[in-house]
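Archive maintenance. Older records in this collection stored only the sequence; we are now back-filling the structure field for every entry so that each record is complete. The fields below show one back-filled record exactly as it appears after the update. Entries are processed alphabetically, and NADH dehydrogenase subunit E is next in the queue.

ARCHIVE ENTRY
Title: NADH dehydrogenase subunit E
Organism field: Williamsia limnetica
Length field: 300
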Amino acid sequence: MTAEPVFIDFAMHHETTVHRYASDILARLEADAAEIIARYPSPRSALLPLLHLVQSEDGYVTPTGIGFCADQLSLTPAEVTAVSTFYSMYRRRETGDYLVGVCTNTLCAVMGGDEILADLSEYLGVEAGGTTADGTITLEHIECNAACDYAPVVMVNWEFFDNQTPRSGRELVDALRGGEQVTPTRGAPLCTFRETARFLAGFADTRAGASDAAVPGDATLAGLRIAREQGMETPAPEASGDASGPDDQRAAAESVADKPAPAPGTTAPPTSGSSETAPDSPVADGPKHPVGDSPEDKEA
Ligand code: FES
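Back-filled structure field:
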């Protein structure tokens, strides 16, 4: 059987022309890039924030931005492209002022995410991935962003809007298109996609509330509360059969550090009814995540 070739459209223009920023823009970006690169022991480690930097300039990662990153970090454009096309936060097409992402992953989908996306698509007159003619909204479906306890969620420029409905989704995009100040469920008032990209590049976010510590909400703590009510506890370390201390564990880890990982299939899944799968297994459910985890955490 002959495998069919798979072609992936990265929506990049395969041009041989080398694009460069105008001299004034280039000087500004070079100063910003120098500040970012100085934070890392190895310049190439600065690639992710530099991609956010060029995205803050162009609204997406353009061939010019890729060339700029490559020049700054002594990488090839192919290397920069390979990284930029791996992470979904780097856009490959022009993006509106507000990137409205509707989570259609499993839990959000069954809780109404699919309906929200379909409704917004009809309301805005664009398919997922498209941008409204006025350039304000780019609509997208997104994968799980670990806010399932507030499903269905919508993210605007990576900020959460919890427990959404088709109606609240319409109100949200109306407010954005009307130029209103919109504040997400957690965090600071929204700014534009390009401004957000600059913050993600590592420049100071001075908006009120931008640096406030995330506080787990009631839905996030529900599992922990139930576990406590029912007297559930995690087993003590010695009860698990592993009585070794931190030094023993470190030594054990170092002893296999250079050994290859086991081949697929050599690790058996838990047997049905075992302590790992039994529904009444005494496993306490702690806080699942710091609510408001930034998408950058999820991305890279
Ligand atoms: S399924 Fe939507 S945030 Fe997890």
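Update note: The chain has ten helices and four strands. Residues 106-124 form the longest helix (19 residues).
Entry marked complete.
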